[in-house]
Amino acid sequence: MGSAALAEKTSAPTDLLTPEEFEAAIRAVGAERYHDKHIFHKMLHGGQMNKGQVQAWALNRYCYQDAVPRKDAALMARTDDRALRREWIHRIHDHDGLGEEEGGIERWLILTDGLGLDRAYVISKEGALPATRFAVEAYVRFVAEQPLVVAVASSLTELFAPKIHRERIAGMLENYSFVSDDVMAYFKRRLSQAPRDADFALDYIKTHAKTREEQDACVKAVQFKCNVLWAQLDALYLAYVQGMIPPGAFVPAA
């Protein structure tokens, strides 16, 4: 179905989208709004940043990484669906680790270690931008408070993640002498984890969004999540490209 036909179909809020139309509406959000289009990421991947700016990005992004298991635990706490909990719990293990698996948060700290940041300082989040922390906590609250199918839908930016991870791995290794292959382990692992998670979540919302209103709310949830990611980059750009670093935030070495 072409874009005009899809627009006509979606203009009638009582008409249930087909599974194919529903997925197309979700994917259209990424094509328009995903944060790979933000100027900060284009600069980051294109080698246009200095080490301090890359440090600021990694330090602030840690706030988001650290919040992911909390938002996943909040989602699990809300459902009596054992099958959903059994599937969703591996997301917590992916980030927090389990047994010998170190987990994504540890791999992110290996990145910040490699960039020369003090680990205790990163974990404390003391140097994070206020806007970063507000955006991250808004995401946690959204997942805790919205209807379950909408909360699940908010994770679907993972549909678009592999592309940005591949760009980041290639661009940062090529352009920054202070970035080594070992510290990019987080992104390499997410190349396989994100598609698995996205496939499950997409199937879930196709099955459980029973009304057009619920389908529209799911699309808006993906828009909201894109806004959360975009707002974090707006804050980074303002602080570390435009030079408007707020009091108390990380200040790169001269």
From TrEMBL:
Keyword annotations from UniProtKB, A to Z: Oxidoreductase, PQQ biosynthesis
Pathway terms, separated by semicolons: Cofactor biosynthesis; pyrroloquinoline quinone biosynthesis
Enzyme type, top EC level: oxidoreductase
SUPFAM superfamilies membership: Heme oxygenase-like
Protein known as: Pyrroloquinoline-quinone synthase
InterPro entries assigned to the protein according to its UniProt record, in alphabetical order: Haem_Oase-like_multi-hlx, PqqC, PqqC-like, Thiaminase-2/PQQC
Species of the source: Candidatus Rhodoblastus alkanivorans
Database matches in Gene3D superfamilies: Heme oxygenase-like
Keyword Oxidoreductase: yes
Family: Belongs to the PqqC family.
GN (gene name): pqqC
Domain Thiaminase-2/PQQC: 25-234
EC number: 1.3.3.11
Task of the protein: Ring cyclization and eight-electron oxidation of 3a-(2-amino-2-carboxyethyl)-4,5-dioxo-4,5,6,7,8,9-hexahydroquinoline-7,9-dicarboxylic-acid to PQQ.
An annotated Gene Ontology molecular function: pyrroloquinoline-quinone synthase activity
Reactions listed under catalytic activity: 6-(2-amino-2-carboxyethyl)-7,8-dioxo-1,2,3,4,7,8-hexahydroquinoline-2,4-dicarboxylate + 3 O2 = pyrroloquinoline quinone + 2 H2O2 + 2 H2O + H(+)
Keyword presence, Oxidoreductase: yes
Superkingdom of this protein's organism: Bacteria
